[in-house]
Amino acid sequence: MKNQHTFYSILDLALVSKGQSLKETYNNALQLAQHAEAYGYTRYWLAEHHNAPNIGSSATSVLIGYVAQGTNTLRIGSGGIMLPNHSPLIIAEQFGTLASLYPGRIDLGLGRAPGTDRETAEAIRSDFMHAAHAFPDELEKIQTYFSLENSRSKVRATVAEGVDVPIYILGSSTDSAHLAAKKGLPYAFASHFATTHLWEALDIYRNEFQPSSDLKKPYVMAGVNIIVTDTDEEAQRLSTSLIRMIVGIFTGKRDYVQPPTAFTDELKEVMQNPQVHQMLKYSFIGSKATVKDQITTFMKQTQADELIAVTHIYDVKDRIRSYELFAEIMKELNETV
C-alpha cells in the first residue's frame, strides 16, 4: 500500500432512471453531491454525453453550476468536457465564470472523445475529426486564455484571465497519457470502462512526466465502478441495472436505467461474455468487506493518488448508500497508511 493518503471522488453521468423526469434526475444529482460533501469526497465530476436517453449530463457546465450552487466545499468539475465538441474560447469563458462564482472549487477535466456516436459528433461540430486531432493545440489555447499574459492579445477570454481552474487530462487509451505527461498535468484514466490500456497508459504517464508550474510530480486518478451494499447478494441484484446498460451499449439499444431484477443465470452468462467481462474488469460489487478487499488490491496495483467512483444504480437512495459505504472503506484504508 502507498504510504500516502488516497483521495476519493465521484464521476456522475446524471443517469436517467426509467419513470423519472429530467428535473428529478438533476435534483438527485444535487442530492448525491450534498451527501458526498458530508462523506468526505474530494470532488464531484459530471461527464459530457450526447444522444443517450439514459444520460442527463449533456450541458455539462450548466449542471456544474447547479451542483456548485447547492454545495459548499466539494470541488465540482467536468469529467470531462469533450474539447473537440467546443470552442476553447467558449470553454474558458464558461469555466472562468464558474470559478469566479465558486472560487477554489471548479475543476476542468478535458477529453478528446466525442462522448457520443459519429453522426451526433458531426451534428455538434462538422469538423469534429480535425478538432480531435488538434486536441493538444486546443488544450494550449485554453491554457493561454486562462493566463494573465493573454490580456495583451486581440482575442481574450476576459472572465478567465488569472482565474484558478485546475486542468486535468482524461484518457481511455495511451494517447492522452503522453500529452498529460508532456504538459505536466494530472491524468485521469477511464478504467471504469476502458480497461485494456490502463497499465500501459499509467507507465507512459509516470515515465514521461515533466514537472510544470501546475504539478511537480505525476498525479493519477483511476475510474472504478462501485456498487456497495450490506450483502453481496443485494449488490449483485443492484448490479443488474448496470449489466443491462452495458448490453444496451453493445447492442445499440440504449434505454433508461432499468429497475434491478434477480441475478439470473442468463445475466451470469452475459457477465461472462468477453466484451462485457473486459469492460467491467474494474467493477467492485459486493458487501463492504468484499469491496474493501478488491479496492485494496486495485490501489496496490495502480498506486493511484485518487479513485473516482462511478455508480450506475437505479434508485438514488441505493446510490447514495453505496457512496456512503465506499467512503467508509476509503477512510478505513487511509487510516491504515
From TrEMBL:
Keywords: Oxidoreductase. GO terms for molecular function: oxidoreductase activity, acting on paired donors, with incorporation or reduction of molecular oxygen. The keyword Transferase does not apply. It holds the Pfam family Bac_luciferase. Gene3D superfamilies: Luciferase-like domain. InterPro entries: Bact_Lucif_Oxidored, CmoO-like, Luciferase-like_dom, Luciferase-like_sf. To bacterial alkanal monooxygenase alpha and beta chains. NCBIfam families: oxido_grp_1. This is Luciferase-like monooxygenase. The lineage of its organism: Bacteria, Pseudomonadati, Bacteroidota, Flavobacteriia, Flavobacteriales.
